[in-house]
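Hi support team,

I'm filing this because I wasn't sure whether my run with zinc ion finished correctly. The job status page said complete, but I'd like someone to confirm that the output block is well-formed before I use it downstream. Pasting the exact inputs I used:
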Amino acid sequence: MSKNIIILAIESSCDDTSAAVIRDGVILSNCIANQTAHAEYGGVVPEVASRAHQVNIIPVVDLALKKAGIEKSELNAIAFTRGPGLLGSLIVGVSFAKALAMGLGIPMIEVNHMNAHVLAHFAEDPKPNFPFLCLTVSGGHTQIVHVRDYLDMEVIGTTIDDAAGEAFDKTGKMLGLPYPAGPHIDRLAKDGNPVFPFTEPRIKDLDFSFSGLKTSILYYLQKRVRENPDFVKENLNDICASVQTRIVSILMNKLKKATIQTGIKEVAIAGGVSANSGLRNTLQEIGKEEGWNTFIPAFQYCTDNAGMIAVVAHQKFLKGEFVGQDVTPMARYAM
Ligand code: KG4
Ligand code: ZN
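And here is everything the job wrote out:
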């Protein structure tokens, strides 16, 4: 039976300002203002990001409410990303949520951004069954998560250095591609073959490492460019295909290991890098071979968005997990 629980969720952990409205667990709107100002710097500039959040937050919230057809007076709670993320960016979302919640006299719900990437799978059908494994791969994180329930999850593998998205972005920078380079490598790899031998690191258990790969790509390119200054230009598609194939194989090998260790065959991917077509296709191929049920979120729920924050918030509302006005953002926030 419908309870008519309506929540406004705000996401401002990095460089996208997003607001979403959810009613009884169904997302009514999910609006995102992307920041393009960072491209010229080759990475997210925290000060630029927090200033842009300040400019974007009111229009994005207004748009989300309008698209959902919901008045502020109908809201039952305000949810926000508490962390992890850039402190200056988080502060904008947290402060806005506090002010709005106080003005409306309604409670607040804090959400862990990584928890939300996992629960992005509950934004739309098909939804995984518990327990499932989720490979969460973004610009800041690479995690294999054992998900027992909506709010009960454990990180069983993580990166010991760079995140998978960082590996895409930093390699792309070496190749002269704009930031963020992940989508460009994905696009260029489609017309290339993985002919270059970038090696897979040997890391124990379910953990990952990408910094060695980055260095080996750098040294390999430097050597080939010394022989032929146009090497990168002439082989860009094949280099991108080789980089992507290696990053995907590093991720998939650990995910396979995790399914064997846990015996779980419900397997999901989440986070910005889950938009990668090589990863999506490989997950489906291996899933078929291994007899997994695989889950890939729609593109709009892969990269940072408030819809996924709203999904967690709905579950927390049902459990009465609210926070007071003394809540503070947390740049580092373990799940
Ligand atoms: O989850 P997300 O939007 O933000 C963070 O929380 O970090 O992830 C952003 C990351 C960036 O590193 C970006 O290059 C990567 O996701 N990304 C991709 C693709 N789309 C986004 N990487 C590879 N292929 C893509 N198609
Ligand atoms: Zn994210």
